[in-house]
Write a structure and sequence with these properties.
Shape: rod-shaped
Number of strands: 0
Low-confidence stretches: none
Helix content: over 70%
Number of helices: 1
Mean pLDDT: 86
Order of helices and strands: H
Distance between the termini: 69 Å
Strand content: under 5%
């Protein structure tokens, strides 16, 4: 019984970690994308 509990906890942790890394990935891509967009806007303003 205890072993099953532990494996469930480990699975939940793994899911949480993979979710975290996924969110982190998406967040960094979004930030880069926004930065590129603002960069383009600034370039248009500068020109």
């Amino acid at each position: 019984m205890n072993c099953q509990k532990n494996s469930k906890k480990i699975k939940e942790k793994m899911v949480a970690i993979s979710l975290n890394s996924f969110v982190c990935e998406v967040f960094s891509h979004t930030v880069q994308y926004i930065a590129q967009l603002t960069n383009i806007k600034y370039n248009i303003l500068i020109d």
